[in-house]
Amino acid sequence: MTGAGPELAWRVAGGVADPELPMVTLGELGMVRGVECDAAGGVVVRLAPTYAGCPALAEIRADVAAALRAAGFAPVRVVTVWSPPWTTEWISAAGRRKLADAGIAPPGPVPARGGGPVPLVLGARRPAVACPRCGGRETEEVSRCGASLCTALWRCRACREPFEHLRGV
Amino acid sequence: MNDEAWGVPEAEGGRWAFGTGFADPLHGVDVAVPAGVDGAELARVCVALADDALVGAQRLAEWVTRAPEIEIELALANVGLDLLGQARLLYTRAGQVDGSGRGEDAFAFTRSAPEFRCLRLAELPRGDFAFTVLRLLVLSSARLAVLERLAGAADPVLAAVAERGVAEVAYHRLFAAEWVVRLGDGTAESRRRLRRAVVEVEPWLGEVVDDRVGAGLGVAAGAVRAACARDWRRVGEEAGVRLPLPAPWDRAPGGRAGVHTEHLPVLLAELGSVAREHPGAAW
After folding, report:
1. How would you write A46-59 as a 3-class SS string?
2. Which of A66, A85, A122 is the closest to B234 by Cβ?
3. Distance from CA of B134 to the nearest CA of A (A)
4. Which GO CC annotations does the UniProt entry carry (chain B) (predicted)?
């Protein structure tokens, strides 16, 4: 391992595909928070999980460790970072584009939360989500929970196609 | 199963599902207890909140293959999965700070009912869909109020779990509230079911609104009651039903003291059956 360690480690860890959303990488999702290399070729990677209950978490950690070992790093440590918590704001522009290309409407902006209680807002219109297939804005939410923990089910009234929407959290 | 084929890091030994398997959810997190934090009290709070989540998740999972629509089934299962994730982190934290060194599986699978500290409302049988969404509204209003305050806890691990949990539980509350409104504002049958659910949850509300679970870690007395009053009034007005706020609870020992209904042992028997039959199993 040479002096190019940190950039290489960042590229390798960030380049691992997400097991639930394989069209995007962990780097594009904003899950890689940091890498630290030592002179002996070891590396520590800091990963921020998306959801506490994400069933893919152990698999993600294993994938990252395997990729780094394959790139010549040893020993490899993957450290979990819960704070500051991951939000969809961490997803990069490239990640959002790839999600849309794969038929998953990317999350919209998330209102910043102050320190106070989260208000319960009933009957609020969901912010418009553009159909990732035809671009139409006449869309509606079918279900708040989709096939995975992070997605909701939507439908486009223009092209009649259902699509998934990565919920903004 | 060959570890290499799974690409599991050597250090994690290939463990994957129960007994086996989940890697420590706090893997790699700094586990030191900050000076001035009472480890025993911290563990008590973590266990109580984890028990609410684990038992609640198990009841929600009972809807899988039984829900009225597949979207509802997914939604209920996903809410349960969020809670299970919170439970795993909280149990792991409790085992780190209570001096026992127990892992999450020991908390989940090897304790008997009197050792659980969940609210009794969480353990009542699944009921119908109206009962399920009304109970979810009640429990998530209260849990959200506690987590919002624990997000500022002195223990950084609990604070981080709470901060992440706030976003999740706020979503559970909204999902439940919208369904309560739809049932109350729906057909004669859905209104009848919702009103029946109100009667069914009412005896258990005192323990929820006067819960003092986070008191030792700075959650102000009355914070949960105030939050529940606000949320339930708002939902009740929209749904056309009254969600009664109970009189101050008489402090008879309840779930937080290990006194439970007859339903919890049955739930735990099923939950821990694989763990008991195959102790330490790995696959």
Report:
1. EECCCCCCCCCHHH
2. A122
3. 15
4. cytosol
